[in-house]
């Protein structure tokens, strides 16, 4: 099952819909998900959705507490296809960029990088400062992929769900998780 495990991190940036949709799409694709939500991510959940913490947890196969740095996903011997942080706050991006592993989400991301697995960060912030750009550069130089959820208007999305679906589909593509319903340019 190891080749079909995905770690999903949800941090406190706006856009928790991306993390929720990623959990739904991974389940549909038959991928086992390991979820870690930061306290700020839980705050965002309460602001942006009607889901309870329990509702969100039930979308994942396994849920880990952010303080549990001894969890399986904190070890390189726990094999996964990679990790998606959706949404990814600048605070989380910076912690990952500079190996400040003060919680399970950032530790799991660090493990993903050190094991040379795919790490995709759906960074949610604008405008960007030089510090933000430097952190993005650092993560990219380590092998991570910074993928802000930028809408593809050539697809003529009709709803916010269309925009979220496409962004999440592209992120999961980067992790090798097939998305058969993803609209693609020229197809």
UniProtKB/TrEMBL annotation:
Top EC group: transferase
SUPFAM superfamilies xref list: Homo-oligomeric flavin-containing Cys decarboxylases, HFCD
EC number(s) from the headed UniProt entry: 2.5.1.129
Transmembrane segments: none
UniProt keyword Transferase, yes or no: yes
Family note: Belongs to the UbiX/PAD1 family.
Name of the featured protein: Flavin prenyltransferase UbiX
Biological source species: Nocardia albiluteola
Source species taxonomy: Bacteria, Bacillati, Actinomycetota, Actinomycetes, Mycobacteriales
Gene: ubiX
